[in-house]
Amino acid sequence: MFKSLQNTPVEWLVTKDQVDYPDAVSVMEQRVERIQSGEAAELVWLLEHPPLYTAGTSAKKTDLLQPDRFPVHTTGRGGQYTYHGPGQRVAYVMLDLKQRRRDVRLFVTALEAWITNTLKTLDIRSHTYSGRVGVWVASDSGARRSEEKIAAIGVRLRKWVSFHGVSINVRPNLEHFSGIVPCGLSGYGVTSLEKLGKALPQERFDELLQAEFEKVFGATVDAEIELPRFGQLTQTP
Length: 237
Fold this sequence. Notes:
- This protein has helices at 21-36, 104-120, 202-217; strands at residues 10-14, 43-47, 52-55, 72-74, 81-84, 88-94, 126-129, 132-141, 144-158, 161-169, 189-190, 220-222, 225-226, 234-235.
- Mean pLDDT is 90; it is low at 230-237.
- The chain contains 3 helices and 14 strands.
- A hairpin with a 7-residue loop joins strand 13 and strand 14.
- The protein is of the alpha/beta class and 237 residues long.
- Helix 2 crosses helix 3 (202-217).
- The protein has a single domain (10-235), classed as 2-Layer Sandwich (BirA Bifunctional Protein, domain 2), CATH 3.30.930.
């Protein structure tokens, strides 16, 4: 669907320790520069952050309901406010769209398909909607049927190389979302695999993500890199 014309595997990296948000952004920006120059392969980086809020380029101050609750980071990705924290799988996606398709809408659609296909393997029916960013799951609350968000998408392109990416709620503290209007959409709830009774070990969920990523974007290979404390990506000897 959105595979590379070069047929080169995407490097796949999982970091088990929580990563501070500024360090993650520094790593991404450096990696994007190396992808642009041809010095490094494309990369998908899976990680967790400590509890925090991020403000995308369209964020409205009125949507930050509890500004003193967690650190708030202004970021260059698209979108509005979102929450990151333990129990949420963040996937930073650094792909070269020059080697794929220079079509931002199609790229976002491919990211949505990646998430919905992964959830489908867990028998979770999820949906996307025009004009409403993210991936949603129907929820029945008494006589009222509503939609709850299970995954957020926020990307940025620099010279057609993507960074930032997606976040999927595995087992985060959903109450932490109450400090913001998630993605500027009021009147909707948030959900998680755990809330839906589909929680599973993080390692197993990562395996499902990798398998479904390959169906949409192409082959992956384990990244042979290490991440020094202050963010510069270096090749392992």
